[in-house]
């Protein structure tokens, strides 16, 4: 089938909840994608922060082959398998966590985290302690609980009523958070760096203050690292970049992860302290496909490679280069550049949608983070030459305006 036949078939049979550009992607290598016409695109989206090791990676392909060779893609969580135990051990050893529960996506992980927080409060005898404190510009997913914690009327209103008991404070405003806290709050959820909300990093003082607030009210602190975790910011977990030698001052009680964990295979994870695990009982939460041996074997390979200190140092170095080159554009249309590592947002004085469309024509794949923010979330393996090419392309497009 040619490109148009594929697009027409999709429009006939696939629910139209996405807006897609008029090309069909067929294969990938490194940080480059190719469409059915053979055109190459430098990818600065990486499947929305998923394909951390790019496309056609030999190590991932080997891990997939190893997992497939067992003949077991799935057996369900009714039985023991080695891969999910090995992955859980790795995640705990590289973070604050004592236990891990696997899910299928980021929204799924956040829903589970809310359940765990309410169960924790209930186990301590607090029947009315079920409220969740979230923040302005947050994005935690599109399921009924995670959507309730995502203050976007456009997303929420068509599906109301949502999960009750969610309240909001202003991001990076500790006094606003304190004003919302009381004995009914069982959890605080925050992104250390807001992704969909425009690439806004939390301040160190804000995260330390939230840790103290959670302790004061015996609430659980939840970090949503679905987009900013697993090496994206130059540390394995984004919160670790705020530690400044004292990880306990910023570490959460629960952390949710998903996007890049298995290099493109669907997986999520809820990392937690032992006190949270102790509140959960057999049958309290489950997922048929989560933690299957195939995906967790691949995820172990991905996380092991990204956790390497030299790899993470490279992410930090390349992130700095990206920002330096963007600043050198000195474009009057650029209002602010924000982010950490290879999670970068460029605030513009205009809607960036036309810019993204023009970039496709130049062989560059970009994505927004709100109407006026151009977001750069390339594979973590992107080269310095590819970073320079991406910025030069954006600069050329800005000069045309």
Automatic annotation (TrEMBL):
> One biological-process term from Gene Ontology?
L-arginine biosynthetic process
Q: Note whether Transferase occurs among the keywords.
A: yes
The family classification in the record reads: Belongs to the class-III pyridoxal-phosphate-dependent aminotransferase family.
Q: Which InterPro entries match?
A: AcOrn/SuccOrn_fam, Aminotrans_3, Class-III_PLP-dep_AT, PyrdxlP-dep_Trfase, PyrdxlP-dep_Trfase_major, PyrdxlP-dep_Trfase_small
Q: Which cofactor does it need?
A: pyridoxal 5'-phosphate
Determine the domain of life of the protein's source.
Bacteria
Extract the Gene3D superfamilies matched here. Aspartate Aminotransferase, domain 1 (3.90.1150.10), Type I PLP-dependent aspartate aminotransferase-like (Major domain) (3.40.640.10)
Query: A Gene Ontology MF term for this entry?
Result: transaminase activity
Write down the NCBIfam families for this protein, in alphabetical order: argD (TIGR00707), PRK01278.1 (NF002325)
SUPFAM superfamilies from the xrefs?
PLP-dependent transferases (SSF53383)
Q: What is this protein called?
A: Aspartate aminotransferase family protein
> Which keywords, in A-to-Z order, does the entry hold?
Amino-acid biosynthesis, Aminotransferase, Pyridoxal phosphate, Transferase
């Amino acid at each position: 089938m040619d490109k148009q036949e594929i697009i027409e078939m999709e429009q006939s049979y696939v629910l139209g909840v996405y807006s897609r550009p008029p090309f069909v992607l067929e294969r990938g290598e490194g940080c480059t994608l190719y469409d059915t016409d053979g055109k190459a695109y430098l990818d600065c989206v990486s499947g929305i922060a998923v394909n951390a090791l790019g496309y056609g990676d030999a190590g991932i392909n080997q891990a997939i082959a190893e997992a497939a060779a067992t003949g077991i893609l799935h057996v369900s969580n009714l039985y023991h398998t080695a891969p999910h135990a090995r992955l859980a051990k790795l995640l705990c050893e590289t973070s604050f966590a004592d236990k891990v529960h696997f899910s299928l996506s980021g929204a799924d992980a956040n829903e589970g985290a809310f359940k765990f927080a309410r169960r924790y409060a209930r186990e301590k005898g607090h029947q009315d302690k079920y409220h969740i404190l979230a923040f302005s510009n947050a994005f935690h997913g599109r399921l009924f609980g995670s959507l309730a914690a995502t203050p976007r009327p456009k997303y929420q209103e068509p599906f109301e009523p949502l999960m009750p008991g969610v309240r909001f404070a202003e991001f990076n405003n500790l006094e606003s958070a304190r004003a919302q806290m009381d004995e009914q709050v069982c959890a605080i959820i925050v992104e250390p760096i807001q992704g969909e909300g425009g690439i806004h990093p939390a301040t160190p003082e804000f995260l330390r203050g939230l840790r103290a607030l959670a302790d004061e009210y015996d609430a659980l602190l939840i970090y949503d690292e679905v987009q900013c975790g697993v090496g994206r910011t130059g540390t394995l977990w984004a919160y670790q970049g705020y530690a400044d030698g004292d990880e306990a001052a910023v570490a959460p009680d629960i952390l949710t992860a998903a996007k890049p964990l298995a290099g493109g295979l669907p997986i999520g994870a809820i990392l937690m302290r032992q006190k949270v695990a102790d509140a959960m009982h057999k049958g309290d939460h489950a997922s048929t496909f989560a933690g299957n041996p195939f995906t967790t074997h691949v995820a172990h390979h991905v996380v092991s490679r990204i956790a390497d200190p030299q790899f993470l140092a490279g992410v930090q170095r390349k992130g700095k280069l990206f920002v330096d080159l963007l600043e050198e554009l000195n474009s009057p249309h650029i209002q602010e550049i924000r982010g950490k590592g290879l999670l970068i947002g460029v605030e513009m004085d205009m809607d960036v949608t036309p810019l993204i469309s023009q970039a496709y024509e130049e062989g560059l794949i970009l994505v927004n983070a709100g109407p006026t923010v151009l977001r750069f979330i390339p594979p973590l393996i992107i080269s310095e030459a590819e970073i320079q090419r991406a910025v030069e392309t954006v600069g050329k497009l800005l000069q045309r305006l």
